[in-house]
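Need a sequence for this fold. Nothing fancy.
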């Protein structure tokens, strides 16, 4: 009997399988995140507040793990786009420090930043740089039990009239260091550790970071502290174009026109129904829930809701079929919003005829952002 080994699959089949697994995980995770948000809105004592914060962090780790697995598969298939946006390098580093400082404090570690740059505003793929630096800090947190972790950024080229400058980003820790002979294997996907404190078992984080950097004409490098102490320094260099336009830092006020309106929620998962309906109620929207295409068509004809949220995967049924039925049978349907845990691109989903996409797991702010966008006049 031939062994059904994952490694025997083609890259495209691996990506399909991992996307399917991702979908199966994202849907219950949506419920967990929603329940946590609801719990956070209740009256909690100090201990309970701390427990909820730990739960939120655990959810973030799980979500990052799912994204890491999919990113690894996509990068192996060269499915990768660089999206440059104006950003403040100081802002990026401070945001990451703020995110990880509580985790460092839990281990009794100091999390510092050292920034030595002149040209602060650049064009950069914000999401990918944050992903790489977050992976490096996560890695440092795993293997550092005392001392500190430092996030550094130095401008390597002098200030002049050049449109581009080189920057070195680094994460330095005072942890266990890199075992001799393991310097190369730590960049391999899921290298297995031979001891609990061995850095030769860091999962996908370093591998994905290096693959991302390769697509940005860079690579991850490793060094030991210059003073001979224990620890490790992971660093990379990027050449980035300057920009004079500072990024918008003010958080957009999310308002919408749907308070007091009616919504229909079509999803075959009872927990997703409960969580999403609760989010809509907090936006002062009256919501009804159904589980099937037939029920949805009846309810749409009866109530003509202003908002129709449709899960793309309805058990054996397809949300795209419901979308088509509504468009063919209802003269003036409400706004049609897709909810999905699939890896279909946003453009693919909008091409089906949906007006907006909510990708599971989503929180109340993501929902409010969609409602706000739908309230804007068409461009």
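Here you go.
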């Amino acid at each position: 009997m031939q062994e059904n080994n994952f490694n025997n699959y083609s890259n495209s089949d691996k990506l399909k399988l991992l996307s399917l697994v991702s979908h199966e995980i994202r849907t219950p995770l949506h419920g967990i995140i929603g329940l946590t948000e609801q719990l956070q809105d209740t009256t909690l004592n100090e201990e309970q507040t701390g427990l909820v914060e730990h739960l939120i962090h655990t959810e973030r780790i799980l979500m990052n793990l799912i994204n890491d697995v999919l990113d690894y598969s996509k990068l192996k298939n060269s499915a990768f786009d660089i999206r440059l946006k104006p950003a403040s390098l100081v802002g990026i580093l401070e945001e990451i420090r703020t995110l990880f400082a509580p985790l460092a404090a839990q281990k009794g570690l100091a999390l510092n930043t050292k920034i030595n740059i002149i040209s602060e505003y650049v064009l950069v793929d914000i999401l990918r740089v944050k992903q790489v630096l977050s992976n490096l800090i996560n890695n440092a947190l795993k293997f550092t039990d005392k001392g500190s972790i430092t996030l550094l950024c130095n401008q390597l080229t002098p200030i002049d009239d050049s449109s581009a400058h080189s920057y070195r980003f680094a994460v330095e820790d005072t942890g266990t260091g890199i075992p001799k002979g393991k310097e190369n294997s730590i960049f391999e996907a899921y290298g297995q550790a031979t001891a609990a404190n061995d850095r030769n078992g860091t999962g996908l984080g370093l591998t994905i970071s290096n693959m991302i950097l390769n697509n940005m004409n860079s690579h991850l490098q490793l060094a030991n502290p210059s003073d001979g102490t224990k620890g490790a320094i992971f660093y990379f260099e990027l050449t980035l174009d300057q920009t004079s336009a500072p990024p918008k830092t003010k958080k957009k006020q999310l308002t919408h026109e749907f308070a007091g309106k009616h919504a229909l929620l079509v999803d075959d998962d009872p927990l997703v129904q409960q969580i999403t309906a609760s989010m809509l109620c907090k936006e002062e929207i009256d919501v009804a829930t159904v589980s099937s295409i037939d029920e949805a068509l009846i309810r749409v004809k009866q109530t003509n809701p202003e908002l129709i949220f449709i899960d793309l995967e309805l058990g054996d049924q397809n949300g795209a079929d419901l979308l088509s039925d509504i468009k063919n049978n209802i003269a003036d349907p409400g706004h049609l919003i897709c909810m999905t845990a699939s890896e279909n691109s946003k453009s693919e989903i909008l091409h089906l005829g949906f007006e907006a996409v909510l990708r599971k797991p989503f929180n109340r702010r993501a929902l409010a952002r969609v409602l706000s966008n739908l309230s804007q006049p068409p461009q």
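For context: The chain has three domains: 11-76, 85-193+201-241, 262-375.
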